[in-house]
Prior knowledge:
Protein name: ABEC1 enzyme
Oligomer: single chain
Shape: globular
GO molecular function, one term: RNA binding
CATH class: Alpha Beta
InterPro entries: APOBEC/CMP_deaminase_Zn-bd, APOBEC_Cyt_Deaminase, Cytidine_deaminase-like
Keywords: Hydrolase, Metal-binding
GO biological process, one term: cytidine to uridine editing
Order of helices and strands: EHEEHEHEHEHH
Amino acid sequence: LTFLLCFSxxxxxxxxxxxxxxxxxxxxxxxxxxxxxxxxxxSWIHWVRNDGDYHAEDYFLEExxxxxxxxxxxxxxxxxxxxxxLECCDTxxxxxxxxxxxxxxxxxARVFYANTPDxxxxxxxxxxxxxxTIQVMExxxxxxxxxxxxxxxxxxxxxxxxxxxxxxxxxxxxRLKLQEILTVSTL
Length: 187
């Protein structure tokens, strides 16, 4: 079992462009994370990717994230190349049930196995929990998650033209998939 844990807080521009483009379906999941404790303006950033059977979300939440102060709210923003699978939804749900001071915003580039009933149900259950939001990354508008990730998780001074405009249609399709999953009942 091999797992890449970054020892840098910055991801390569090639990895960000390739793995967060919803038109392609690479075999790895990348997780970009921003943590804020309490009302601090400072944040901590980190990234991991899976490499084998250990999922990026599981690894981050079980091996890297450590609750610090139970009186301070911890806000976690996860930018994921794929939405969490059934098992990772369970891991996130367990963390939220255990750590009442944690809030998680999940932004995804694409939906993982959107037609698998177990994955759909797990995403819906996670979405219905308090202190968690799930949405598809936005390319433009008031907040461009792609631009934010580029400016936050790429080493400063790296020049490279990156425009998510070329895959706005794919983003829209992923948004529709996720909305349908989160709003449709399986009754």
